[in-house]
Design a protein that fits this description.
Chain lengths: 101, 555
């Protein structure tokens, strides 16, 4: 798997609250990866990243990450790290909630 | 406990004011992230996977009820109602907002706390034995010395931008509960032939990518010479430590590449120079520090009620440590309930701990590097009442030192550096061995889990160490065996190929099953059995399908 073979989205952390955010087609930020702008070629990906990097007082550490598209063309995480960034701490939902602490 | 003087109070308040201004300038655009990042890190503020994280210093792991209660308030007001106690005896809040952090720091300053020296390439907060000042096996309380080092190192102009972070641990007991051999400098208190208290000085220990145990650089250092000697070590490291490669920048690499004998000669030369020029520590300061950590006003021996409850007896068996006074005990409150995240405490639990410290424990609390909370001074007559209140609060888990008392770093559930998750692995192991009778049958066993090579979970010194990595796009867990963080320290040996997330807990079960089959009765611990037999039978249990010859070479 290489990044070049997959479409990409731009993600970062929000400056004020640290939330995981994604750049949209409207060049706004969303907290839903499914609403992220999808770059299907390297040139578009670079343009989106340039846009994100030009707004350092909204987003911290923007980068491109490869995504998989669902049947409706909406992006979703490919790598498990990106998956966990979309879910929050996994043990709060996966494991611990069903167990009396 | 040490109490701030006017200098300390002003210093901490000024630092908060500085940081408030820095945050404001970051938000209004005057500071770039590149400029802001080192400033926020110097104030304990990280940006993690999902949010900012504020790491608050608990110097040498000591705090009182009011401070714990304030941590609970901060968790409720500015975070999500819980905190995470760390292997550096600190606490982390996982969800602060950037604008709120200066207010959080002011709230900390209200109770003489801060977040300084919890990050950055400086001398970090000094860690020590969680039973300091209470342990029956102690030569002397190491905390006055730890505080002396804190005062010397805070904002030290020469050592604020070291090649890498620098960690010092100190123990006052020959039983090393502070993992001194895995620190950049380890200080082990001892007495010379004349009875004078001093330190054996170890240098160049550390875990992470290149795990090494510290080497003795000074067999005995009088306490009065401590600061000029530490300064000599830091000067030598600051000059020679590698800044070209962050993975080779820790002092352990300098020790390894230079050789301890050559490095010792350089340090001794610098020490000779320092002794001539170093302003001697004001003896009055040492006296004040000793007085600040004077024992509490212990009560007289009193009748202890009979321990009729089996649950209480079980709790005392595992969670109570001998105190220097026979009618007292040090009580470890486990933050490792089955299903919980190791080291996490809710704000309600923090308030309960504060109440219990005030009601039963001379208003003292400790954080251990094993991510538990200790009431160091509890009269034994109070143990039944204390246990009952802990039970009501869900804090009476009787598993200290057992298989479910697992160290786990935050891993990829929080940490931006992590390569795999740690907490869910710890939870699944704890759940697998939830039966307390089974845990007691297995006996003393330290499992330590890190979610990346940086080894915050101390996996190298776990009897069973687990290191989470990424392999081919999925989480993969390597096992190390035979590690030990105590006075008989050892770096664990890698057992062989890694296991998937779904395979790692069954692999640990096989290891423990092999130990139960191999041990010479319940008196022989996992580590003792491993040391008697070596890795081979444990590797056979881990990799039952591998040919014996390949198993022998695995790892």
């Amino acid at each position: 798997m290489t990044k070049a073979q997959h479409p990409q989205v731009v993600t970062a952390n929000h400056l004020l609250d640290g939330d995981v955010i994604y750049l949209t087609e409207a060049l706004d930020w969303t907290r839903q990866i499914t609403e992220a702008a999808v770059a299907h070629d390297p040139r578009r990906a670079a343009a989106l990243l340039d846009e994100a990097q030009s707004r350092p007082h909204e987003a911290v550490g923007p980068y491109l990450t490869p995504v998989a598209l669902d049947a409706r063309g909406r992006p979703g995480p490919l790598h498990f790290r990106e998956l966990y960034r979309t879910t929050g701490p996994t043990f709060l939902t996966d494991e611990a909630q069903n167990v009396p602490v | 406990m040490y109490q701030y003087d006017a200098f300390d109070a002003a210093f901490v308040r000024n630092r908060v004011a500085q940081f408030r201004d820095q945050v404001e300038r970051r938000i209004n655009g005057a500071l770039t992230e590149d400029a802001f990042k080192p400033l926020r890190l110097m104030n304990g503020l990280y940006l993690q996977l999902h949010a900012y994280m504020l790491r608050v210093a608990i110097p040498y792991g000591t705090l009182n009820g009011a401070q714990m209660r304030q941590l609970a308030m901060i968790a409720d007001r500015w975070d999500r109602g819980y905190g995470h106690f760390t292997t550096r005896q600190n606490i982390q809040f996982n969800w602060p907002k950037l604008r709120d952090v200066p207010d959080m720091l002011d709230a900390l300053a209200d109770v003489e706390m801060h977040a300084i020296q919890t990050s950055g390439n400086c001398i970090r907060n000094v860690t020590t034995d969680q039973f300091a000042g209470a342990a029956a096996d102690e030569i002397a309380d190491p905390r006055p010395t730890a505080e002396l080092i804190r005062q010397w190192s805070t904002d030290h102009p020469e050592f604020t931008w070291l090649p890498r972070k620098f960690k010092i641990a100190i123990t006052g007991s020959p039983r090393d509960r502070a993992v001194t051999r895995a620190h950049d400098i380890g200080l082990r208190m001892l007495r010379d032939d004349a009875g004078e208290v001093g330190f054996e000085v170890l240098v160049g220990g550390g875990l992470g990518r290149t795990p090494m145990l510290g080497k003795v650089v000074r067999a005995f250092l009088p306490r009065a010479d401590l600061l000029p000697y530490l300064e000599a070590i830091l000067q030598t490291y600051n000059l020679l430590g590698r800044r070209d490669n962050k993975y080779k920048a820790r002092i352990k690499i300098l020790v390894h590449e230079t050789g301890i004998d050559r490095l010792r000669a350089m340090i001794e030369a610098a020490f000779d120079e320092n002794r001539r020029t170093f302003a001697p520590v004001d003896p009055g300061l040492l006296d004040r520090l000793d007085a600040a950590f004077a024992p509490p006003d212990f009560e007289a021996p009193a009748e202890v009620p009979p321990l009729v409850s089996p649950a209480l007896r079980s709790f005392i068996d595992t969670n109570v440590h001998p105190h220097r006074l026979a009618h007292y005990a040090s009580v470890t409150v486990s933050l490792k309930p089955v299903g919980g995240a190791p080291g996490d405490a809710t704000s309600d639990q923090m308030r309960l701990l504060a109440d219990l410290a005030e009601d039963f424990g001379h208003d003292e609390l400790r954080v251990s590097h094993e991510q538990n909370i200790i009431l160091p001074h509890v009269p034994r007559r109070h143990l039944p009442a204390l246990f009952a209140r802990l039970r009501e609060g869900g804090l009476a888990t009787a598993n200290v030192g057992l298989v479910s008392d697992i160290i786990a770093c935050p891993g990829m559930d929080y940490c931006a550096l992590a390569t795999a998750r740690s907490i869910p692995v710890a939870q699944r192991i704890a759940r697998t061995f939830a039966d307390i009778d089974r845990q007691h049958d297995i006996g003393a066993l330290k499992i330590k889990i890190s979610g990346c090579i940086n080894a915050c979970g101390h996996h190298h010194v776990g009897h069973i160490g687990i290191l989470g990595l990424e392999k081919a796009g999925v989480e993969s867990y390597q096992i190390t065996l035979g590690g030990d963080g105590t006075e008989t320290a050892a770096i664990g040996e890698r057992a062989g190929p890694g296991f998937s997330y779904d395979e790692i807990v069954p692999a640990v079960e096989r290891l423990i099953g092999a130990y139960l089959d191999l041990r010479h009765g319940r008196g022989e611990s996992f580590l003792q059995t491993y040391r008697r037999l070596g890795a081979a039978p444990f590797k056979a249990a881990l990799y039952p399908d591998a040919p014996a010859e390949r198993r022998a070479h695995a790892g």
